[in-house]
Amino acid sequence: MDAAQIRRLGPMLDRFLAYFADCCSRRPTRQHLAAYVRGLLSDLPRKSAEPIALGQGVPVRTLQEFLGAHRWDHDRLRDRLQQLVAADHAADHSVGLLDDCGCPKKGDKTPGVKRQYCGASGKVDNCVVTVHLGYAAGDFHCLLDSELYLPREWDADRRRCRAAGIPDGLPYRPKWEIALELFDRAVANGVRFAWLTFDEGYGGKPGLLSALRRRRQRYVAEVPRTFGGWLELPALTDDGRWAGEPARAVEQLLASEPRLVEQPWVAYRVKDGHKGPMVWEVKHAVLFPQREDGDPGWPLHLLVARYALDRAEVKYFVSNAPPGAAVETLLLVAFSRWRIERCFEDGKTELGFDHFEGRSYTGLIRHQRLVALAHLFCGRVCQRWGKKPARADGVPGADGLERLGAVVGVEADGPGGAAGESSNEHPAGAAA
After folding, report:
1. What confidence tens digit (pLDDT) does each residue in 45-76 have?
2. Average of per-residue pLDDT across 311-320
3. How distant, in Å, are the alpha carbons of 56, 63, 192, 358 from that of 375?
4. DSSP 3-state of 165
5. Does the first or last residue of the chain, that is N or C, have fewer Cβ atoms within 10 Å of its Cβ?
6. pLDDT value, residue 430
7. Would the pTM of this model clear 0.85, i.e. be above it?
8. In this structure, are residues 133 and 182 in contact, taking their beta carbons and an 8 Å threshold?
9. Alpha-carbon span 131 to 178, nearest angstrom
10. How far is CA 48 from each of CA 60, 347, 348, rounded to the nearest angstrom?
């Protein structure tokens, strides 16, 4: 970035923020919003309300009240952000990314704080966990939405919730239900995903997979090794019961099922990492997953991938893509999940994502949405002025998605939509 471009950043930010002006009904509130975003984009070492206020020449108390108490529509800001992404960054090969993020906190007053697993520290820690929906298309990625994960202990103590400003209508919900709500909101605002991907914490929830199938949304989901199913659909008896072997975990199927045991591993160069090409060896089969009621569900692709440099590292993925979908396509989607991790990393290291210090639910959500707004501005600037590295060999670059567009373009309009799509919940409906 040269000096002329740097001088243009200020006016560009003003025009960008003008798109969100109707989220604040009063001019002073709009000025506070702009000051907060500028503070997030600044070089301050700490980006909570107080240092931002001091850096922007705003009274500290005023900016704290803007974040937690002033009346302005942070839900409309989220909707505007999603509508802008839908209008300007739509792509045939877009990937939605579901994940949660933990931020360590001290004390017991921050909304939703408790001792729970925290990805930032890699252990059980006193932290706040929020669930997020990200978006990736080509070289562009951003965060679309976020919501607090409210632990059961908090839900059982509504007095504590009210003291933290947590609405009575916000109960404990499993993370996958929160993620599905984020997905539905984004779709309602015009965002379209060619694919959705998520880790085994979400992929292991049959309720989420069923809900996405009903929404005709394609996904590639990592699942735990205990994820159960059959490689061959059991027989259905005259009285409507399933006969044959019980469902087995995918780890057991890999070790004992002949069609997987005898299938050779095929090496795929998934992407170029900082230390060189990342190669995973893969086996592929069709899996009938075990539903929550114990019966077989609609057939899914099953991918078993082991890391070529450490074959003890094995991942399992399922997908409702059409039957003819290329394994390479499914792998590229599955391994694009690093994009949301990069959003978290950028947010924490550059934009103060984890610097929130208040005790208000509204303040926490507003802080995270303003961080997402600042991150979106950065992403748009990088996309406009950034240079793409040359890839003479045509293989995926460091982003792992360079070839995904063309592959998905071939598969996107294939017959039958997502695998197993039907108005029926049960594969026996089609079989019968």
Report:
1. 999 999 999 999 999 999 999 999 999 999 99
2. 97
3. 19, 20, 20, 21
4. coil
5. C
6. 34
7. yes
8. yes
9. 7
10. 10, 13, 12
